[in-house]
Sequence to fold (237 residues):
Amino acid sequence: MKFFYPRMMLRFKSFFIDVNTISLLSIILTLITSELSFITPPKKAAISFLIPLLLSSLLTSITGSSLGQKICGIKTVSLKTGKNINIIASLLRFILIIPLNGISLITMFVTKKHQAVHDLLFRVVVIIDQNKIFLARDILPERLLDTINYLYPSKLRRIFVTILYVLIFNMTFSSFIVFTVEFIRENCFYGKVCKPLANSYHDLVSMFLSLGIIYIVILGCRSQLYGARKKAKVLVL
Fold:
């Protein structure tokens, strides 16, 4: 079964809509249950948290799309059958999206079917709804290695080189962060101003550190790191 896949920004857009819709519904339920004295606080919290998630998961299992996905014209289906997934898989998958977000960013760039980690765990795939009309730039085909024009190093070599790059980058950048933060704190005459400044600086460069590691892993998976690069085949005429 041949599928086409949405670009990452389309998936982010649908997720943004879902999160805000669920949050709004959760707030409404919290306001309603706060007026009901016969419901205990733990049950109120469970109602406000679980019901919006269950409704979104139920919609996904019945129609193949959450509200955000339906607006964006994409679907979540079983990788094996191409049919809608069940409500339990949909619920657990959604709960895992946020804690696995950073890793998912990597796997969506490198997996054959553009799958995030939570897609891989539940053997599902997010696809373009064939009943919708999209611009060509919003649609991705299945990702394939160009074995006709390039020779690729072994997976073991790619993994080893990628880990080595990540370790070197992490050690170098982390040392730079520690040195510069301490320098700011020790050489600032305005302690009340510089301590928050140093903390903000630390948070900012730590974010760049994470993005750098993600970028290195993506390059490694694509065989674009020195030491494990793909090589163009030489055509003999």
The chain has eight helices and six strands. The radius of gyration is 23 Å.
